[in-house]
Structures are given as C-alpha cells and as structure tokens.
Amino acid sequence: MAIARVEVAGAPVPAAQSLPRQEWLAAGVGGGLFAGAVMALFLMLAAGAAATPWGHPFRAVGTTFVGAGALEGGAGAIAFGAILHALTSAVLGLGFVALFPRDFPRASGAVVGLGYALFAMAIMTSLVVPAVNPAFATAVQPVGGAWVVAHALFGAALGLYRARGRRA
Fold first, then answer.
1. Which of 35, 65, 146, 155 has a 20 to 30 Å separation from 108 between CA atoms?
2. Is 65 left (phi over 0), alpha (psi -120 to 50) or beta?
3. Averaged over 41-53, what is the pLDDT?
4. Model pTM above 0.70
5. For the residues of 8-52, what is the DSSP string, one character each?
C-alpha cells in the first residue's frame, strides 16, 4: 500500500518555518513586549483599584531571585520586576510565534492566544514560580484574581498582534 502526501494550498505555516530568522525574532519579541505592556497596564490599574501602589505588581515579580524584601523596595525593585516581566513576555512571544501561524483571522488569533497564555500561566504558577519565587503567592494577594484576567489579556493581545495583518 502506497502512502500519498497531500499538501493543502494556503495551509497555515508557523513563522518558525516560513519567516527568515530575523523576522521571526522580531515578530516574537515585538508581540511578547506588546502583550506584556497590555498586561502590565491592566495590573497597574487593578493595583490602584485595590488601593495598592501602582508599582506593586512589578515589586511582586521583583521578588524573584531577590526575595520578599523587594516588596518594600523603591524604584530599583520596580525596575527589576518590570525588566523580568518584559523578558518573560518576550520569551512567551517567541514561543507563540514558533507554534502558531500569522494567517489566523484576528478573532481566531485572539482566542488561540488566550488559550496559549492561560496554559502558560498554569505551567508557570504550578511549576516554575513555586521553584524560583516562593514569595510570589503571598505578594500577589492584593490584586487577587486580576492576575488571571491579566494573563487572558496578554494572550488576546499576543494573538491579535500576531494576526494583525488579517481581517476576521
């Protein structure tokens, strides 16, 4: 019995296979930083709504590798948390670009990005964060469930950025 290979014209191809390396890196890092900025803005607003200083989400992230002392820190703790958040966002953006094609319609890109971000959040909160930042669970308490909404916004923004050239 012979096996025939069938290729579908116009089938989506992940960027890792279809773009030159430099464009792939730019798409992943750019999308991750854009989505990370959307997430950070939402978290700063959520912190304000919870009567917590706007920099608290960055201080909470800044407890990574530093410890709970970052919660009392000033501009340096906020900057460290913001840089760490940006780096993580860029890495997640690269992962998204490597897995998902650009030629999704915008609505589909937003939904797929949302699922990707919630999956990444599940892995991060259950495996990665407890190992590298045990203080984070208590540091994030003031903004409560806003972290889940923020990750959903990250994913939707990432998917929309990726599919920005397509119409729904």
1. 146
2. left
3. 89
4. yes
5. -TT---BHHHHS-HHHHHHHHHHHHHHHHHHHHHHHHHHHHHTTS
